[in-house]
Each structure stands twice: as structure tokens, then as C-alpha cells.
Amino acid sequence: MEIKIKALKFDADEKLLAYVEKKVAKLEKFFENSGDAEVTLSLLNEPVNKQAKIQMHVPGEDLIVERNAPTFEVAINDCVDAMKERLTRNKEKKYQK
User: Fold this and answer.
1) Model pTM?
2) % residues pLDDT > 70 (the chain)
């Protein structure tokens, strides 16, 4: 699985990029044949101003999860957890047919 990371309105350091790469790579276990994953990190003008968005290309559709949090690490963890559920549901729905 290829992971593309974009940082909007700031420069992400290597530790953050490595953290995102490590967490998002674990999603491959939940859906074989998963395609690419795009991760977008951005800053917002809100109190909880760190936003993470994961878009995964799986056969038949694109799955998108977006979360806001006080830190990028928390936002990524929330996105990965939500994406695990979406991938599991998508896989179950696909194989029930």
C-alpha cells in the first residue's frame, strides 16, 4: 500500500511523518487489495485546530475519514480507528453478497 502524506499550512517534521506512516500502514491488515492511502494534515482556526483526513482507495469506492483533535497524533489515532471500522464493515458487506 502506498501512503501519500500532505501537510497543509505547515511543514511536518520527520517524527510526525514517520508516526503517520506507521499508523496508516497497519490499515492494510483490515482489507487486502487495498489501494493507495492519502493522508492530509492541516491546521484550522479553531480551539481544536489539528485536522487529519485519511482517504483510502479500495476496489469499488473511496473511503474518507476526517477527525479534529488538539494534536496530530490524537487526530491520526482517531482516524485510523474509524477507518478500521469502515474497512471491516465494507469487507463484511462485500463478502455477504
Assistant:
1) 0.87
2) 97
